[in-house]
């Protein structure tokens, strides 16, 4: 069951209301997704830049939603591995955009990558690669031990 940007937004608002207002799904299509982090003072660190945890959170949510855009609303899919490279200082007064794509989407594991950009800039500020565990579909029965 594929999910479009509107369905992903509704899912976030329903199941992750505590963070939903920080993000906006800009586009979701064919294993690719663009997610916006609405940067506020909460996301800044001393020195006037977006914090690493905020950038990591954007990448994590973006890749998670890219997976859900393909498999449907599986709230229990979880991050099992993550790597992030911080490439340059993001702008403090600009939203961040995560451009994601899925590299592998299997029955139990998914791998995606995200490039993060300060809005209006061409060079990425970070690159992330993440792996997610997808729980078995209860309709398919339990996996053999």
Automatic annotation (TrEMBL):
<dbReference type="InterPro" id="IPR029069">
    <property type="entry name" value="HotDog_dom_sf"/>
</dbReference>
<dbReference type="Pfam" id="PF03061">
    <property type="entry name" value="4HBT"/>
</dbReference>
<dbReference type="InterPro" id="IPR006683">
    <property type="entry name" value="Thioestr_dom"/>
</dbReference>
<dbReference type="GO" id="GO:0016790">
    <property type="term" value="F:thiolester hydrolase activity"/>
</dbReference>
<protein>
    <submittedName>
        <fullName>PaaI family thioesterase</fullName>
    </submittedName>
</protein>
<feature type="domain" description="Thioesterase">
    <location>
        <begin position="47"/>
        <end position="122"/>
    </location>
</feature>
């Amino acid at each position: 069951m594929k999910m479009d940007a509107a369905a992903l937004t509704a899912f976030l608002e329903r199941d992750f209301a505590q963070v939903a207002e920080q993000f906006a799904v800009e586009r979701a299509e064919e294993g690719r997704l663009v997610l916006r982090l609405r940067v506020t003072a909460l996301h800044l660190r001393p020195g006037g830049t977006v914090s690493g945890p905020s950038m990591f959170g954007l990448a994590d949510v973006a890749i998670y939603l890219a997976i859900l855009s393909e498999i449907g609303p599986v709230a229990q899919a979880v991050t099992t591995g993550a790597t992030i490279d911080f490439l340059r200082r993001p702008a403090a007064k600009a939203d961040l955009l995560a451009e994601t794509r899925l590299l592998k989407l299997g029955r139990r594991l998914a791998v995606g990558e995200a490039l993060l950009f300060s809005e209006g800039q061409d060079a990425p500020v970070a690159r992330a690669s993440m792996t997610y565990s997808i729980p078995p579909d209860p309709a398919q029965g339990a996996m053999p031990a």
